[in-house]
Amino acid sequence: MKDNADLNYAWAWAICEGLRAGGVLQVIISPGSRSTPLALAAFRHPELQTRVILDERTAAFFALGAAKASGRPTALIATSGTAVSEWLPAVTEADLARIPLILLSADRPPELRQCGANQTTRQTDLFGNSCRFSMELPLPEQGLYAAACRFAVQAAGSAHWPLPGPVHLNIPFREPLTPVDFPLPDNLQPAHLSRPVLDPNPEHLDRVAQAISSRPGIIVCGPETGTALPAHEIAVLANRLNAPILADPLSNLRDGSHDRSQVIALYDLALRNPSFAGEVRPQWVLRFGAMPVSKTLNQFLEGLDGIRHILVDAHGRWADPLHQTTDLLQADPAGVAQGLGSRVSPADEDYLQRWKNQQKRVREIIDEEAPEEKQLIDTLTLTLPENTLLLSGNSLPIRQLDWFHRGRERPLRITCNRGASGIDGNIATLLGMASACRQPVVGLLGDLTLIHDIGSLAAAKGLNATLLVLDNGGGGIFDHLPQAVLPEHDALFSTPNEVDIPAIVQGFGVDYLPTTPGQLANHISEAANSHGVSLLHLQLTRSTSLAQHKRLWTRLNVE
Questions:
Q1: Does 468 map to a domain?
Q2: Shared-domain flag, residues 347 and 392
Q3: Kind and range of the H or E element at 400?
Q4: Final residue of a domain: which of 354, 378, 399?
Q5: 210, 227, 328, 346 — which has fewest CB within 10 A?
Q6: Same domain, 350 and 375
Q7: Residue 106 pLDDT more than 90?
Q8: Taking residues 164-180, what's their average pLDDT?
């Protein structure tokens, strides 16, 4: 019995050593009995940082945030049974957003499955096509320590390449589970990993360059897909083409020290004018990143039939729900931008100038109308320290950033759980980001997003982060959607919250600070420079906000 317990521990240590070799730094553990060997091995490993989070759903989104911020795969450990199922929402997001997660589920041995044994479910291939790599390891065996180690390295490698995302190792253990002597396996030699940089095909570059050279077109930069877009190289290419860059806030091309003279940040508002949209129909579209947040831009793109649509994606996933791609360049985006830049000639400056003139006019209109959320976005983005990581919630916050954030020279990285665009797990993601980086971390969330994941505040201990909650008393996004005309709008979609937010937040030991638009800049600065997690609560009047937006949309449509 002692020998089997120590065998389990040595087996788990070999797996952890493989994770280390594969680039894992953080391991998030949810307590359980069957996972004892894995939890102990990770906790005792000198090069792995561990954090214990009770709730597996929170733990998974926390790991997602850590991987987002660090760019390194983060590992999760859970015991058998329904605990593993709690990972599914975060695994879905990691799959679609291309975030590397390593899922280590402990399991009962084969003889205890499908026979009524307690806390036993079917865990193999639980996450289906969401995982890049999935396997069940054999039961621990002394002669296979090297194999266990290398399976872990292989899993870590598959989480990064060829398509980043989650991987799953299901790991059965027989009892007893608690080691006595804590033995370590001898002579482990984990494999070393490297990933290729995919150069673009020169002949394909020639064909694309010929199609876009000297012709008016647009460069659309959508949300990052796991890795940063090459802002400098794209800016140089745009300059060479005399092309506007329509930069989604999640592309992170609106902010930074690269040349932003051709970045059009206010394209959504500009394209609400049908006359302007007709004037700037391009002859080609070059896309980097995922599909943009803006529905207005997507509708504009959908209407561009019969032109060249070029998509750049190093991992080959077809991010094209409009089904318009004529060219998919499966290559490093920086290499594509550089390769095209050396092959193209500029279009007439008049096309780019039309975009710049319309953006200037849009800026004047929104400054005159001055919706409250526009002022809040300005205050937030201009106040945040350099290199802040800003996590936006879905629904209205990311749209407010899309509509109103004009950009700044100081670096600011904006991210969002935009893979599946869910409301769940945002606080846990924010806290995971805070655990994996040293720069300031700030969240911009709505009140329902806060309430949906408010239990994740239990994981805030020892972390530094700021949450700005824009509280419009329910699902304000539906005021802007077709459901707004339904008589059941308030009952089914508005979902006003009746939660005592201050009491719950303070109950988790989080600093609670009500704020107003006039106090916001000072409160953000104070919170960003303080230790611990702070929540700034700013209440909005929904009817006023909706009226301001409608007035703005009306002016933009005709001017």
A1: yes
A2: no
A3: helix 396-404
A4: 354
A5: 210
A6: no
A7: yes
A8: 96
489 contacts: CB under 8 Å, gap ≥ 6 = 478, 483
Task: Write the single-letter amino acid at 458.
Answer: A
| Whole-angstrom distance, CA of residue 135 vs CA of residue 155 | 9
Q: How confident is the model at residue 478 (pLDDT cuts 50, 70, 90)?
A: low
- Tell me the backbone φ, ψ of residue 160, rounded to 5 degrees: -105, -35
Q: Are 84 and 119 in contact (CB under 8 A)?
A: no
> How many Å apart are CA 5 and CA 497, to the nearest integer?
50
State whether 308 and 280 are in the same domain. yes
Asked if residue 383 and residue 342 are part of one domain, the reply reads: no
Separation between Cα atoms, residue 112 and residue 164, nearest integer Å: 34
Contact of 304 with 281, CB cutoff 8 Å: yes
Check whether residue 405 and residue 294 sit in a common domain. no
Q: How far apart are CA 259 and CA 253, in angstroms?
A: 9
**Which stretch of 334-343, 387-396, 475-484 has the lowest confidence by average pLDDT?**
475-484
When pLDDT is averaged across residues 481-509 and rounded to a whole number, the result is 79
Of 72, 90, 100, the closest CA to residue 162 belongs to 100
Same domain, yes or no: 417 and 518: yes
pTM of the model: 0.95
521 vs 6: CA distance, rounded Å: 56
Q: Is 184 part of any domain? A: no
Query: What is the residue range of 327's domain?
Result: 202-354
Torsion of CA 55, 58, 61, 65, to 10 degrees: -110
Helices (H), 55-181: 56-70, 82-85, 88-97, 145-160
